[in-house]
Amino acid sequence: MKPPFRPATIAAQANGQINTATGGTVGPIETSTTFERDDAYRLPASGDIYRRDNNATVREAEAVLNALEGAAETRLFGSGLAAIAAVMRAAQGPIALQDGTYYGTQKLGEAYAAEGRTVVRFPAGDLDALRRVCAEAKPGLVVIETPSNPWLAVVDIAGTAEIAHEAGALLAIDSTAATPILTRPLDLGADIVMHSATKALNGHSDVLAGALCVREKSETWERILSLRAMEGAVLSSFDAYLLTRGMRTLAVRVAAMNHNAAHIAHWLEAHPAVTAVRWPGLSSHPAHALASRQMQGGFGSLMSFDVKGGASEALAVLSRLKLIKRATSLGGVETLIEHRHSIEPAFTNMPPALLRLSVGIEAVEDLVADLSEGLGAIA
Ligand SMILES: *Cc1c(COP(=O)(O)O)cnc(C)c1O
Question: Are 254 and 181 in contact (CB under 8 A)?
Answer without folding.
Answer: yes
